[in-house]
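Allow me, if you will, to draw on your knowledge of protein folds for a short while. I have a record of one protein: its chain in single-letter code and its fold written as C-alpha cells. I should value your view on which stretches of the chain appear to form regular backbone elements. Thank you for your consideration; the sequence and its C-alpha cells are set out here:
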Amino acid sequence: METVGHQILTLPSGVRAKTDQEYVDVWREFFRPLEEEFRGGVVAFDPDIVLETRGLRVELPLWFAKRLLELIAEVRGTRGTDEKEDEI
C-alpha cells in the first residue's frame, strides 16, 4: 500500500487505495458531478470536499457530499458516480 508521507490513501468508500493513481482517479470520478452541477472546482478532498464555485468556497463533509451526489443522480436520472455501489 502506498502512502503520501504518513497519510494512508483512503477512497470515498473508506477502502484504502492500492496506488497513488487509483486514489486520485477514484476521488476525481467521485466529485466530478459536484463540479459539473455547481460549475466549480474541487480544491481539496479527503476526507471532506472543498468546492469553489461562483466566488464561494464551501467545505462539504464526506457524508453530505455523498448524499448530495445521490440527489444529483436522482435529478439527472443516473447513479451519479462510476464507483461501485458497494464501495461508496
Observations:
- The chain has a mean pLDDT of 85.
- The CA atoms of residues 8 and 58 lie 24 Å apart.
- The first strand starts at residue 3 and ends at 4.
- The helical segments are 20-38, 62-76.
